[in-house]
Amino acid sequence: MSEENKHHATAAAILPLVGGAENVTSVAHCMTRLRLGLRDRSLVRDEQLRALPAVLGVVEDDTYQIVLGPGTVARVTPEFEALVAAENAGSAPASPAPADPDRASGTGTAEALAAQGAALKAERKAKNSTPFKLFLRRIANIFVPLIPALIGCGIIAGLNGLLVNLHWLPGVTPALAAMASGFMALIAVFVGYNTAKEFGGTPILGGAIASIIVYAGVANVEAFGQHLSPGQGGVLGALGAAWLGVYVEKWCRRRVPESVDVLVTPTVTVLVAGLATLFGLMFLAGEVSTLIGDAADWLLSHGGAGAGFLLGGLFLPLVMLGLHQALIPIHTTLIEGAGFTVLLPILAMAGAGQVGAAIAIYYRLSRNTSIRTTIKSALWPGFLGVGEPLIYGVSLPLGRPFITACTGGAFGGAFVGLLNQLGTDVGSTAIGPSGWALFPLLDGNRGLGQTVAIYAAGLTVGYVAGFLATYYFGFTKTMLAELNAAPESPADGDAASVERVAEKV
């Protein structure tokens, strides 16, 4: 089967299992997940979805998210959108998913764990629907669409740096530098565009206001007794400027007569928000951006191993609470200022702890073939930084192994943090990838070889620490006995066993 047919087949298999086209209200994707808005959540066949070969897991948040992995999701999404459009255009009824005889019975320990994972996700979704966390989610929606460009340009920047250091292809490296730097030079414009779109304004006006920040002529403008610099304030300034533009635009729409709205509203929006940007926001956002960079440097130069331990150990709990989205503009600001973010490689150690914990679970539950099968299918995506199947399908429902996995991430983060404190910066030129997928994006202050070696060593520490912590402290004797016991019947044995284990954790 060709790649195109394979992705079409995946989309065609997913559609009926989410209730058909009539049940789909929106379709989008991020780095690894197909994100669906659904009318009726009860029509979704979770277990059959998880059983599809291309599906690595499911996550329920404000949208229903199907984990397909990097690369695959970008190819499946347009096929899925085409199928939804075609079915809706033909007024075809939603294709009902075939009956799942095992759905109610909860057969198998892996299925029972998956059900518990779904319950935990639903509980987390309810807790995360606070105004502050919803605001963070909207901020994340501004930056997530920029990740593919950050990755592509980051890899080109790494390749160019390698060629420059080796003195190879001197006629090509200036062109590569232009490709790598062009997007970052104009990233404020894209942030402004996405901000206006997210908050209900006209996207192109948001981009126009944000473009003021990167215009070379701002060097002739003086604010707070200083001449401005092109790019001053960066993405934070662009975000604030575009948000202000949305507020002004909405104010104008309510008051300007329709006959002159097309002339007055855009002009007033750009004028008012532009003046505020030049004589206030650029300077203030520039100070905040500098403060963020200085704070990150201070944290790792003084906190070192301790800071890395906390960051690596607490990152997954932050994800569960929905607070990790606050880090996205911080990462972007660091990349814009220093060329890389020193926080992401430390946070990536959390995934290494999960992988190590999963391997330990595999060996400890030697008689539980269902959980071992789940781990075997989810382990390689975990190595590549796609951790949702391991988290929601294995460690989180079990309880204690999730904590020991976080411990593994803490030790990996401590190792990378210690090296940062000793003067070796390990950073990433983009956000999004993790695990092994982060290798092409690594950068630092001591050469690529040393940076890669330190990151690889940090992953190894995370794997080993997660394995040891889970192997020796992840299970009580009662948990091991019940999870390794052969069930009396599919319906009453495994599922009940997991429920009893969960009660004891």
Automatic annotation (TrEMBL):
Membrane topology: Multi-pass membrane protein
Keyword rRNA-binding: no
PROSITE patterns: PTS_EIIB_TYPE_1, PTS_EIIB_TYPE_1_CYS, PTS_EIIC_TYPE_1
Organism taxonomic ancestry: Bacteria, Bacillati, Actinomycetota, Actinomycetes, Kitasatosporales
Keywords tagged on the record: Cell membrane, Kinase, Membrane, Phosphotransferase system, Sugar transport, Transferase, Transmembrane, Transmembrane helix, Transport
CDD domains: PTS_IIB_glc (cd00212)
Protein localization: Cell membrane
UniProt source species: Streptomyces griseoloalbus
Transmembrane segments: 142-163, 175-193, 200-218, 230-248, 260-285, 305-328, 340-363, 452-473
Active-site residues (renumbered): 30
Chief subcellular location: membrane
SUPFAM superfamilies: Glucose permease domain IIB
Name this protein carries in UniProt: PTS transporter subunit EIIC
